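Still learning folds. Look over my entry:

…
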Amino acid sequence: QVQLVESGGGLVQAGGSLRLSCNASESTFIINVMGWYRQTPGKQRELVATITSTQTTNYADSGRGRFTISRDNLKNTVYLHMNSLKPEDTAVYFCNARYFKGTYWGQGTQVTVSS
């Protein structure tokens, strides 16, 4: 089973930027889909962005045009670059990996955007 560790969260001002990182304990060469999801209290965890092994990306409307997902297989890491952050982006962001062994989640990293 793969272990996923997120980092890069924090407190930023509206309009600012953050880069989240997710490091995987197994080679991302064999992970078909990696992604970022977010969750706030009382709401279901929602998709932010995904990226496949063929570099196909998918973005939720909430982050499209502001967020960019990428993966560096040499570092076993997936990134989420977030620009023009808004207070409504405040959430716990979770890394996700889906491949033949199953679906796995990281522990999450808090992103707080102040107005």
